[in-house]
Amino acid sequence: MANCFSYDVFLSFRGEDTRKSFTDHLYAALKQAGVRTFRDDDAMDRGKLLEPELKKAIRESAISIIVFSKDYASSKWCLDEVLTIIEEHERFSSKHEVVPVFYDVEPSDVRKQTGSFEEAFCRYDDIIEAETDDEKKSEWIEKVKAWRVSLRKAGSFTGMVLADGYESEFIRNIVKVIRKKLNYKLMYVEDKLVGIENNVAEIESWLQDPSPNAVTLCIHGIGGIGKTTISKCIFNSNYIDYDATCFLANIHDTSTQPGGLLNLQKQLLLALKGEEVLWNIDEGIMKVVNALCNKKVLLVLDDVTTRQQLIALLGPQSFYPGSKVIITTRHKWLLNDFKIQPTVHFVDELYLNDSYKLFSLYAFGTYHPIEPFIVQSEAVVHHCRGLPLALKVLGSSFKGKTIDVWEDAIRKLEAVPNHEILDVLQVSYDTLEDSNDKDLFLHIACFFVGEDKDFIVKLLAGCDLYPVVGIQNLIDRCLLYIDFDGNVMMHCLIKEMGQEVVCQESPKFPGRRSRLWNHQDSFNVLKDKEGTVRVVGLALDMRRINGINATSIVIMGNERKRNYEDFSGHIIHTNEESFKVEAIRKMKNLMLLQLDYATFSGSYKKLPKKLRLLRWHGLHLKSIPIDVPLQKLIVLDLRYSKLKQVWDGFKMVGSLKVLNLSYSVELIKTPNFDGLPGLESLLLEGCLSLTTICESIGYLKGLALLDISGCTSLKNIPCLPRSLVSIQMKGCSNLGGPGQVKWLDSCSLFSCLVDIDVSNCNLFDSSFTEDFSNLTLLKELDISENHITSLPSCLKNLPRLEVLYASRCSHLQSVLNVPKSIGHLLLCDNKSLEIVQPTPNPCRTWVARCDNLCAVEGYLKWESMKNVDRKVIRYLGLESVSENAYIEEDSIKVLYEFGIYSTWVTGKTLPCSYMYKESGSWISFRVPSHPDGSRICGLNVCFRAIWDEVDDGLCLCAVEVENKTKALVWRYYPTIEREKKRSDDYTWLSLWRTGNLLDDGDEIVIGSIMLPGLVEEWCVNMMYDDEEEEAGEEIEEEKKDSRCFLNNHISWIDRLPVEVSDFVNNGKTYHFHSDISIGVDGYTVDWWGSCVKMKFWPTGSVI
C-alpha cells in the first residue's frame, strides 16, 4: 500500500499535551518498526504558513494518525490539520486512511465536541462574538463550522482508545494496526504465484493453534518445489502479530561460508534483540536461547540441512508462549532432534492445470498457452512434472522465442538438462553424508526407477550398499519415494540430475563414466570397445537403438489381460548387429549388466567376475554355457529368451537369489536347484512349453516366491518348500485335472503363505478345500476368472486376509459373509453378480461393469424404478415416464451412491421443465434467492447426449459441479456404467443432495468431464428446504408402503455414510469414485470417506 507514498504515517498531535511523552514514545515505536513517519514539528517551522507544506505532507502519507488529547481542540493548527486530513481522505481516488487515537479523551467528546472540546469551541465562539469586522467574523464562522464537521467525521473512524490500559501496550497495539494497514511485505515474493493457496491456508491454520505442541512446523519437499516462497508468504502476512520476527534465508549456503553460522546467529540476534556482537558460536547459542525465551517470536529458518545449524540457531528449543518456528528443509530426518515432534507440511508438485498456468505466466504473460506454441508448451510442462522452479526457469527462457527455437530447445532439453534447475536439485545429492548413499542414489537414478523396492534391496545389498537405511535416507531428503505398489520412484528432474552427475564424470567419453544407462552410449561403447574399469553398470536395449533393423517382441503391459496363448513359440527378436564378448571384458568392475535383445559372439568365459545383476531379455542361446563366471550373481533375468534348458549341465551359483525365466516359451524344464541353494524368487510366468519342475525345488529352504502363471503345459508340481510366501498360478488350468488344482488340497501345510493367485484355473465351488485354517498369515487371495457361484466357505478361516480378488467370475451371483479382515474387495466384470455385503469395517469394494448388480449394502443401490419412492422419481423428472413415451418402467434403473440419485433414459425429449437450460458441454448460472428465504438443499442436474455411430461400448460419464464463488469442485464418477448402442440418444438425470454448498449469488458451472462434444444440452433445477417440509406427508405415506421396508428399496430418507455434502472445504476439488486409485488431480473420495490427494500426468502415472 505505502510504496507510492513518501511517508507511511503523518502524525498529528497537540505538542503541549504529548510531544515529550506519549507522542514521542509512539513516534519512536513506529520508527523502530520500520514505519516511515512524518512528525510535523520535525520538518516544518510552525512560524510559517501552514497550508502548502501541511497539505503536501499529508498527501504524501499513506495514513494519518490523529492523537486526540484534552487540549487538542485548543490549537487552531491542530484543527486545520484535521480539516486537511479529512479533505484528503475524501478526495476522489485518494487512498489516504485515517486512524484516530483517543488519548485520555472519549471518542464521543471528539464527535460531539463535548468535555474539553466543548470548552475549546466556546472560546472560539467568544472570539466570533467579539469580532467587529463582518468579513472576518464570517470567515471565523465558516472555519469553526468546518472544524466541527471534520472532528465529527474524524471521531467516527474506528480508532484506538487508551482507556485504563498501559501506554506501552497501547502503543504496541497502535503499531500493529498501522503495520497491518500498510500491508508491508518484509520479504520479496514474485507476483506470479500459482497453486500455493492450499499450502498457505493449512499453515495459516497451524499458526492459530495455541497448543504448546504446535510451536515448530517443518515445510518439507524437494528443491525448487516452493518451500521458501510459501514461507515468505506466511511470514509477510503474519509478522505483525509477534513481538519480534526474523527470516533467516539460505541457511545452507550461508553456513558453508567461513564464519557462516556465526553470521547467522548475529543476524538472528540483531532481529530479535538489536544486538549483533558475538565472538563464538557457543556464546551465540546462549544469547539466542535468552532471546527466544523472552519474546513471542515468529522465526523462519530457510533451507536447513544439518543438526549443527539447528543447534546454533535454536539451542535447546525453549520458546516463549505463542512463539512459532517454521523450518524449510529437504531433510526430514532432522526432525528427530526435536524435543516435541514438529508438524510436517509436505509440499507436493503442482497440479497439471496449475503447471500450465505458471509456465504460461512466464512464457506468455497469460494463464494459458497461446498459438502456435500449445503443443510445445505441453511438452515442456510435462517435462517439468509440476516443479515450480523448472516451470519458471524454462518459461522465462522460452519467452519471446520463435517456434523453431522452441522446437530445437525442446530437443536440446531432452539431451542436455537445464543446469539452473539441476544445480538447485543437486544440493540434496551433495549433502548426502557418505559415498554409499550417493552410489545407491546414482544406481537407482540410472537403472532402477520404477522397480520394486524389495527387489532393489535384495540386489544392492549384494553390492555392499546397505540399501535399507540408504533408501530411507534418500526418502528423507526427497530424492525418491515409494509408490502405492511398493515401487521406488523419483521425480523425473531428480532422475535427470543424478544422470547428469554421472555424465560430468567424463562429458566427452562415456566409456570412462561409472554408469552407462543411455542405450545409444552403451551401444557405441560396446561397438568401439571403449569400456574401462570405471564402469560398474551398463544398460543396453537394442530395441531403442536408432537405425537398428530388428523385429519386435510381444511385451505384456500391466494393464492388459494376459493371454498366454499369444506366446506361440514363434516370437523372435533378431537384429543385424553383433558384439564381441571381448568388449565387456575390459569392464572388470562391472556389477550391473543389461543386454536386452543383444547378440554376442566369443567366449562367455570372459564376462566380468563381479556381476551381481545379469539381465538379458531375448537371449538367443538355447542354454547358458557352463563356464560363464556367475559366482557372485544375485539376479539372473532372462525373460523372453530362447532357452530350452538353463545350464549346459550342472551349475553352482550359491549367491543367486532371483531367477526370472518368464516368457521363455521354448523352456522345457527348470535347472537342478541343488546348484541354487540361496534362491528366493523363481519366476516362470508364460513358459508355455514347461513340463517339468525339478524335484530339488523342495529343498530350497529360502524360496519365498514361485510364479508359474500361464504354464499351460505343466500338469504336476513337485513337493514345494514350506518357506513359500507367495505362489502365483494364474491360468494353470491343467494342474490336477479339470476343476482341480491338486496343490490346493495340501496348501494348508504352507503356513508362511501371504499371497496366493489361483485365478483362471478352471475352478468350481467344490474345488476349494473346506479347511484353510493353517494359512494364518495369508493376506492376499485371487480367485478371479473361475466358475464359483459364491465365495468359498474356507475364507472365513483366514484371520489376516486383507485383499480378495474375485473378478470376471461369470457365475458369481452374491458376495455375502465377507471376512471382517478384508479391506479391499475387487469384484469387477461379474455379469451375474446381484448383491454385495461388505464387512462392517471399512472395505474398499470395486464393482465396475457388474451389469446385474442391485446393491452394495450400505453404500450403493441400483434398482428398477418400481423400487424407488415417489419423491425421488418426481425430482428426477420421471413421474410422467409413460406420458413421455420413454421406455417401460421396469427397464429404467436408478443408481444411488454418495448422496446422488441418477438414471438414464433413452430419447431426445427432456422429461420435465427446468429453471436453467443451456446447449453445449457446460451450463453456468448464479444461484437465485428464494422468495421465502428458504435454503437450497439439492440440485436436479440433467444432460442430453448423442453418440456417433462408430463409438460403441460403455458410456462412462463424469459430471462436475463447480462453485466458482467458493472455489469448490465436486466431480462424480458413477460406479455403474450404462451400455450404449449405436445411434443411441439418451438423457442422464440426477438428483444431488448439496447440503451447504450453495448460497444466494454463488456462481455455478456444471459440465461433463469425460464426454466433451457429446453433450447437446444441460438442464438444472433447484430444490429448497421448504419443498422437503411439504413432502413430509408424502414420505410418511411412502413408509406405509410395504416396498419401503425392502432392503433394495431406494428412498429419499436413505442416508449413506459418505455423501457429497460432507465435503465442502473451499478451494478444493473432490472426486467421488468407488475406486480411490483413479488417476485424477485433486482429492479422491470413496464410499468409506477416504480422502486421498492425487496427481495425474498425461503419461498415466499417478504421483
Automatic annotation (TrEMBL):
GO aspect biological process, one term: defense response
InterPro entries per record: Apaf_helical, Disease_R_plants, Leu-rich_rpt, LRR_dom_sf, NB-ARC, P-loop_NTPase, RPS4B/Roq1-like_LRR, TIR_dom
Superkingdom to which the source organism belongs: Eukaryota
SMART domains listed in its UniProt record: TIR (SM00255)
Keywords for this protein: Leucine-rich repeat, NAD, Plant defense, Repeat
Residue ranges of domain TIR in the record: 5-182
This protein's record includes keyword NAD: yes
PROSITE patterns the UniProt entry points to: LRR, TIR
Record's keyword annotation contains S-adenosyl-L-methionine: no
GO molecular function, one term: ADP binding
Pfam families, A to Z: LRR_13, NB-ARC, TIR, WHD_ROQ1
Protein name (Swiss-Prot/TrEMBL): TIR domain-containing protein
Native source species: Tagetes erecta (African marigold)
Top-level taxonomy: Eukaryota, Viridiplantae, Streptophyta, Embryophyta, Tracheophyta
